[in-house]
Amino acid sequence: SSSGAESFKMAGSSSQSETVKMEVDYSAEVDQLILDCEAVAKQGRVSEALDRLLVMEKQTRTAGDANSTGTILVSVVRVCFTAADWSLLNEHIVMLTKRRSQLKQAVTKMIQEACTYVEQTPDLETKLKLIDTLRTVTEGKIYVEVERARLTRRLAQIQEEQGNISEAAKILQDQQVETFGSMDKREKVEFILEQMRLCLANHDYVRTQIISKKISVRFFDTEGVQDLKLKYYQLMIALGEHDDAFLTISRHYQAVFDTPLVREDPSKRQEALRNIVLYLLLAPYDNEQNDLVHRVSGNKTLEEIPTYRTLLQQFITMELTSWSSLCENFDTELRHGVPDAPATGVFSHDTDSGNERWKMFHRRVVEHNIRVIAAYYSRIGLARMAELLDLSEREVEEHLSSLVVSKTVFARTDRPGGVVTFLAPQEPSQVLNVWSRNLDSLMALVNKTTHLVTKEEMVHSKFVH
Questions:
Q1: Which of 101, 103, 361, 420 has the fewest CB atoms within 10 Å, i.e. is most exposed?
Q2: Coil, strand or helix at 450
Q3: What is the pLDDT of residues 242-294, one digit of tens each?
Q4: CA–CA separation, 165 vs 168, rounded Å?
Q5: DSSP string covering 411-440
Q6: pTM score, two decimals?
Q7: Alpha carbon of residue 177 to chain centroid
């Protein structure tokens, strides 16, 4: 044994770390004792081996020898594991962590060793007891927060395998891994994605939205995380489908499309692009949606899926689109798929959500046609408008009212007269301003014309002379 002024930093966060001076180094004695105790334990005298180890543990702990104490603690749990006495193992884990002035570095080593035994338990009941013991002794201890998080995730997996989705989600969502400084970023993201998945499976959409904000999408710009990026956006797409946030879903698919792993695979690339187009057309019309439609239409990859390019072009062109002809041309590919272009599932005919989206798509076609009519007509008869839209007058009024409420178009309906007016009334000052601008434009043209006539006269007179 040798005394010295050697010191070491204990495991844990910077706020709770403390420096302890080592009074005696027991490394040599501990190594020999462990060999002797393991030999004794193999002879069936487990209690004797543990008693000798615990006596030495007290000496190393009071002397501040963290390395030796950690080695002894690991040896204690290993002896219990080798003897297959799981109750004794749980008992000693609790006892050793509660000992007075127990060294954090030593506890960390013991917990890490005990965690490796979880998957080696003989049955589920023993496994659950060991996990519960380890989670109990690690609760509130920052220096073993990563081990506790991993145990919690394993416990949630067991609950899910047993069909207790609600309990699994509840267990996992209490872990705030984003605050763990000692956990790798990738592992943090994997943990948060698992929290999101379980909350979605439990239909807790509000909590899923809250948890998703813990992940910064800039993280996915780093190398080697494309698989996590795809998993994240698949979960966000599932969340968006519940809320019918079609424009948001389209943006998520755009992020998927921009992933190198997807771009390099023609089938995945085309599938992502088909979903971008369909969800974009399902989104309500506004400036953002219109801008995104034009940007997507300029994507050269659309040439690989000509049907979807044609469909998108119909919504850009200011012309009326017949729903019956659209169904005739696109129904098969959009809802059932063809050999070269399988259906996306957005308009699946055998699901309620697919049929609802198909009805919504019909609504978007009608809204597009109303915007076209509003652009070309200042006044139009309701009967004529119904004829153009291939709808009843009542349906026309419903769709028109919806667009007026959302301020997409301005319209006033004279129901007794059966006339729809799309021209918004102007204030006198606005009328005067328009007249003034028109007059200025007219005078500018007159002055330019006068100048050109004068110029031609001068040139003509010169040639005559």
A1: 101
A2: helix
A3: 988 999 999 999 999 999 999 888 889 999 999 999 999 999 999 999 999 99
A4: 5
A5: -EEETTTTEEE-SPP--HHHHHHHHHHHHH
A6: 0.79
A7: 16
